[in-house]
Amino acid sequence: MRVIGLMSGTSVDGIDAALVDLHGGDRDLTLELIAAQTIPYSPGLRQQILDLAGGMPITLTELAHLDDAIATAFAQAAIAVQANHAPAELIGSHGQTVYHQPPRLAIHPPPPQTQPDFTAPSLPADHLGYSLQLGRGATIAQITGIHTISNFRAADIAVGGQGAPLVPRIDAYLLGHRAQTTCVQNLGGIGNVTYIPRRRHLSSSFTQSTTSDAYNPLFNQDFDRDIRGWDTGPGNLLIDLAVQLLSQGQQTFDCDGAWAASGCICQPLLDRWLRDPFFAQPPPKSTGREYFGLAFTENCLKEADAFNLSPADTIATLTELTAASVADSYRRFLPALPDRVLLCGGGSRNTYLHTRIQAQLGSSCRVQTTNDVGLDADSKEAIAFAVLAYWRWHDIPGNLPSVTGAAHSVLLGDIASPLVARSSTV
Ligand SMILES: Nc1ncnc2c1ncn2[C@@H]1O[C@H](COP(=O)(O)OP(=O)(O)OP(=O)(O)O)[C@@H](O)[C@H]1O
Ligand SMILES: [Mg+2]
């Protein structure tokens, strides 16, 4: 089945679109990447998204228009990625996150009983997380004429999960290795990791497909249960925001980490930033711009000023915060450091950050990118949402309770069908 995955993350840099050919189910999934591209947002639309995510109030009419403007941009990305290829039969669209609130950790005590027959709910509604992605699937389906699955996070959140990260099950089935434990570390605006135990039932060391003939179902149950994943904290977000502020808007990101590489890391300030309670919080955990956003960055810059850091030293220390928080979280929350780390997402292009993650982890753990093992590092997240849509279409659950903290695994995503379907093959 040809499926398009669409993704735009917390960096709000553009829409990643991937056209893939998928076969099999989950354990015997095979995947071929046919085409991939990133379509940048128009500056005006990007600013509206950043304003809303930053807390600027808007009317409901404006919200509805923004929802459809984002959906239109996503639909255009889907149309663009299909150019010169046979059309897709299904779209999986993550949409654009504008708000993410993880579930509350402390369960409030139930309200006092006022009537003898009143039964207090054991789980108050405010315990559940809340995550809002704009770019409704119905509009994408209408514009493209293709069945579209969106709103992937809601079902996991409804059963007590974080709604994130949702990619670990796909990472595990695409990148698991029979002899080596693996961490797949995405470096988007936020960083998130998938820890993959050894996948001994695999007959091959790596393919983008998995092979069903050699797999042992009993072993595989353990494999699913032992997969881990969580948001590690900042990926590029703090670096991007600091670069914009320190360059007076001349630069939007630190290309290849060149600015950071020219500075010195301020260890006392790094140690202070690493004491942020998010880093010590055990998984399941997720985060977003609401936490590691503009206010957090401005506070970091104020502290850097107090330490008399140059702009280059500040960017170097913020880059080290990403590298050290990734490595620290592996040391804290994994049984042992992995044998290998595969970086992906835009931050995997930051060569300085790559070397710093390697330095933080030490030489026993080899840091590569997913490109090095044949999976496109720029489009892996978009590919994941194509797979999640494909699984939803075939009634296969997508979340991993061991990762999101959900009470159980569920089907993810809402299906929107076009009034006139372009393809009759699904
Ligand atoms: N050559 C490069 N050098 C340094 N950083 C880069 C480079 N190319 C991209 N980036 C960083 O990658 C970011 C975009 O990455 P990406 O698209 O993976 O993030 P995202 O949209 O937040 O994704 P997601 O939430 O899906 O992980 C940019 O904002 C920039 O900071
Ligand atoms: Mg992006």
Q: Output the CATH homologous superfamily of the largest domain.
A: ATPase, nucleotide binding domain
- Spell out the helices and strands N to C: EEEHHEEHEHHEEHEHHHHHHEHEHHE
Using the coordinates shown, work out and report the CATH topology of the largest domain.
Answer: Nucleotidyltransferase, domain 5
Structural class: alpha/beta
CATH architecture of the largest domain: 2-Layer Sandwich
What's the N-to-C terminus distance?
A: 8 Å
Count of the domains: 2
Q: pLDDT under 50 segments (min length 5)?
A: 106-121, 203-218
CATH first level of the largest domain? Alpha Beta
Total DSSP helices: 15
Largest sheet: 7 strands, mixed
Structure commentary:
- With 426 residues, the protein is of the alpha/beta class.
- It is built from 15 helices and 12 strands.
- The strands form 2 sheets. Strands 1, 2, 3, 4, 5, 6 and 12 form a 7-stranded mixed sheet that branches. A 5-stranded mixed sheet has the order 9-8-7-10-11, sandwiched between helices.
- The longest helix is centred in the C-terminal third of the chain and has 23 residues, at 311-333.
- It is globular, with a radius of gyration of 21 Å.
- The protein starts with a strand and ends in a 10-residue tail after the last strand.
- The structure holds adenosine-5'-triphosphate (ATP) and magnesium ion.
- Residues 7-11, 13, 186, 188-189, 236, 240, 253-257, 345-347, 349-350, 381 line the site of adenosine-5'-triphosphate.
- Magnesium ion binds at residues 8-9, 11, 13-14, 16.
